From TrEMBL:
A GO molecular function held by the record: methyltransferase activity
Protein name, UniProt field: Type 12 methyltransferase
Entry annotated with the keyword Lyase: no
CDD domains recorded: AdoMet_MTases
Domain Methyltransferase: 61-152
Keywords from the named record: Methyltransferase, Transferase
Record-linked Pfam families: Methyltransf_25
Single biological process term from Gene Ontology: methylation
Amino acid sequence: MDDLAQGWQALNKAYWDERVPLHLDAAFYDMTGFRARPNSLKDFETAEVGDVRGKRLIHLQCHFGRDTLSWAARGAQVTGLDFSAPAIAAAAQLAAELGIDARFLVADVYEAVPAVARETFDIVYTSFGALNWLPDISRWALVVAELLAPGGILYLAEFHPFCFVLDDETGRTLTHDYFDEGPHASGGPGTYADEAATTEHNATVEWDHRLSTIVSAIARAGLRIEFLHEHDHTFYRQRQSLVRHEGDIYRQPEGAPRIPLTYSIRAAKT
């Protein structure tokens, strides 16, 4: 595991580089629908962030830019950053197709500050399935704080770490140690967007950061936490026990105890 952890970035980058074209073609992302109406944001995200018109927003770990461009369509001046060159190329192409003004940069999240030439932003945005790929959340939080202008906000929406300690079939039995943050070998063939896809780069490394680790890192970085909201729903069938409700909302089955599946944090730089 030590050898695997040391090579985490190369493994993860190869994994994500290979999956960019698969995701662009996958029904999961519905790019036809997105091109017709560029909005992939969740209702609670737009409500909790508020009006972004004219605000400078940087999206860390943006993949191929759907959420980034969704904020731009709402009036933000956006920058998207990701360590995958194919993802950034796809994001830039998508922006050009849609006629949306956006800047996309290839950079590791830990190198975001020099990548943007120390520019600061009104909003730093990070969303679902991002933090589990980072080994050091304290360092990430310090980067966020340095990217923010005074009065700016961090908005983070993520999958709740508690849901990953339960068994996949029923979501009622504890099967994993919540306090074991990793690193963990992960991955496998295919992708969540197309499980049947043929892939070559299948080994990854992830970390299961506890909620307390994330909140404490944000606070230590000097940001004032305005709220932490926990939600009983998620947006795809990330475990077999979940049941689809309206739209793309998934919850525990009726009669089962509710558990937190996602959460959101807003924190300000004073």
